[in-house]
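In response to the reviewer comment on reproducibility (Comment 2.3), we provide here a single inverse folding case reported in full, input and output, so that an independent group could reproduce the run without further information from us. The structure tokens appear first.
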């Protein structure tokens, strides 16, 4: 009887592992409204830049809910955007440079589910 349970448990474990490997991992979807540039176009952006890529970054940053303010989608990298970019970087353990570099683009497209760092006043 004990050996039968062990075989049944082993079979169930093998099935679970097989199904777990077979299930595709779904990446965070790009919001449909954030289509100002191709998702592969990720230039380095800094304070003062104006472009559609900035508008894309603004849109992606607005996916964050809760306390952080929504940015105006005007394509201007201003002080309000700089503050929000630094906060997003801090939430993901990145250096809070305020520069949208490849790592910052990555987290804009695939944000953490939550951030425990309070948004600065």
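Designed residues, in position order:
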């Amino acid at each position: 009887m004990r050996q039968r349970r062990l075989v049944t448990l082993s079979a169930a474990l093998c099935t679970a592992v097989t199904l777990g490997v077979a299930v595709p991992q779904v990446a965070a979807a790009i919001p449909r409204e954030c289509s100002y540039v191709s998702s592969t176009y990720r230039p380095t952006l800094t304070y003062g830049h104006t472009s559609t890529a900035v508008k894309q970054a603004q849109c992606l940053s607005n996916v964050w809910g809760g306390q952080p303010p929504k940015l105006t989608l005007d394509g201007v990298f201003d002080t309000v955007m700089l503050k929000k970019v630094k906060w997003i970087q801090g939430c993901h353990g990145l250096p809070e440079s305020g520069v949208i570099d490849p790592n910052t683009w990555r987290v804009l497209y695939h944000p953490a589910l939550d951030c425990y760092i309070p948004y600065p006043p």
